[in-house]
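> call design_seq(struct)
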């Protein structure tokens, strides 16, 4: 009788156990990663919004106390303050939102990111500088800068 040669390797059951353990780990870690990504996008949006607010204020000073009609007007302003308007990190195909009051001349503005809920909840800013929400939205998740006031009297919604 010839001795049997035993080959070494993983059995199908062992492979299935490894795959299940990896799937469980991915399922646990993926939501945490999403939270870190949202936090990083929030910090990025805050930084870029502060830069855009500085650019709007500079435009206002250098253009006879007139606010820009759109954010894209900042790229062709003299002196040039920004070379391009960055896209909102929560919607990478769209630039930040901008509104100014309807007064003549406009004195209040708001620039915002759609935020972690990925929905635009801000609609306008009034001639008294109050930010209004659109259609019953919750603008607390929007990230914004303004020289006006929020719906609760603060500088945010």
């Amino acid at each position: 009788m010839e001795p049997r040669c035993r080959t070494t390797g993983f059995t199908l059951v062992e492979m299935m156990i490894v795959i299940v353990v990896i799937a469980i780990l991915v399922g646990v870690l993926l939501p945490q990663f999403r939270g870190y990504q949202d936090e990083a996008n929030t910090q990025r949006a805050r930084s870029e919004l502060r830069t855009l607010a500085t650019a709007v204020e500079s435009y206002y000073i250098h253009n006879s106390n007139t606010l820009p009609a759109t954010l894209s007007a900042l790229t062709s302003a003299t002196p040039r303050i920004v070379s391009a308007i960055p896209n909102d990190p929560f919607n990478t195909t769209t630039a930040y939102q901008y509104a100014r009051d309807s007064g003549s001349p406009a004195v209040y503005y708001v620039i915002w990111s759609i935020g972690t809920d990925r929905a635009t909840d801000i609609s306008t800013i009034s001639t008294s500088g109050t930010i209004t929400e659109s259609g019953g939205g919750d603008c607390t998740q929007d990230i914004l800068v303004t020289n006006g006031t929020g719906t609760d009297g603060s500088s945010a919604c």
